[in-house]
Amino acid sequence: MAHVLLPCDLPTWSDVQRHLAQLKTCKNGEQVTQIMLKIYETCCISLDPDDNQPKSEHSGFQELRFFIDDIMTEQERSKFLTETLSTMVSQALNLRIAKPPNGFLYSLKKEDSTFVLERPFIASLLANAFFSTFPKRNSKTHPTLQDFSFADFFTYLTKRSHQKKLKVLLRYFEKLDMQPKGMVTFVRKVVHGPSLPGWLCSDRPLVPLIVRPEGTLHEAEPHVFRAFPCTSLIGGDVLKTSTSQEAKLFFTFPELLVSLSFVESLGDDESLLTEGIYPATSARKSSR
């Protein structure tokens, strides 16, 4: 069984905890991003030596400072610095306590699997991704996984679309209880039987399918799911250029972002189902 390497499992965690705690006293975006850059320099180490650029040259944190100090309204900035940031720090620091007692396993290719994650753990994973505390991944070191860090996303904060997405993520934490309750289920399903070409050439009828063009998920029966196409690498460009419809979905339901941390790429004969996720607009009503 392969376990996801979490920030709290690394020897740098005590330093990360110290930096995170310092964020609660920040008064402006400059102070926030200076500390976050220190966290990034500590944590963002890649197994690929060609990918270990000088961390101080990463422009994402400059754009984040601009977003906090110049794009946010005075009311938004005050709420972020005095309330939301503190909530996110507390959730990030809770990682060691919130993680599954038997470890956090990967969802591996071609293996049916079900993962039931408690919401405190999900909130902690999201907060740690925002603060970029996870070790760096790239296509050489982890070809079937995504990098689970917001550092590159911040680089695009000059775009209004990214500014809106970040505000949606912050709204999720604003509405999240300090002791979030409930669970989210991720189910990886693999088609067993004929190969994909066999399915394409088959003349057998598919199971009945009802598509409803109107209404919302909250009005639907419990067994109804929202179907959405996705890229092989879950999330696609969601934490980079973030231009796809898939990226929009992941920020509408920020808890979906957690799948980037542990779900290997999907094959043509695989799908990922989620149950119990909270939309950012209401961190108390779950969806599928």
Low-confidence stretches: none
Strand order of the largest sheet: 1-2-3
Strand-residue proportion:
5-15%
**Sheet having the most strands:** 3 strands, antiparallel
InterPro entries: PARG_cat_C, PARG_helical, Poly_GlycHdrlase
GO molecular function: poly(ADP-ribose) glycohydrolase activity
GO biological process, one term: carbohydrate metabolic process
Pfam family, one: PARG_cat_N
Helix/strand layout:
Layout: H1 13-23, H2 29-43, H3 60-71, H4 74-93, H5 95-98, E1 113-118, H6 119-130, H7 151-154, H8 160-175, E2 183-190, H9 196-201, H10 245-252, H11 259-262, E3 270-275
Antiparallel strand pairs: 1-2, 2-3
Helix pairs in contact: 1-2, 1-4, 2-3, 4-6, 4-8
Structure description:
The protein is mainly alpha-helical and 288 residues long. The chain has one domain. It is built from eleven helices and three strands. A three-stranded antiparallel beta sheet has the order 1-2-3. Helix 1 runs antiparallel to helix 2. The longest helix has 20 residues. It is globular, with a radius of gyration of 19 Å. The chain starts with 12 loop residues before the first helix and ends in a 13-residue tail after the last strand. The relative contact order is 0.15. The mean pLDDT is 88.
Descriptive terms for the model:
288 residues, mainly alpha, three-stranded antiparallel β-sheet, Poly_GlycHdrlase
Structure, briefly:
Keywords: Hydrolase. The chain has 11 helices and 3 strands. It has 288 residues and is mainly α.
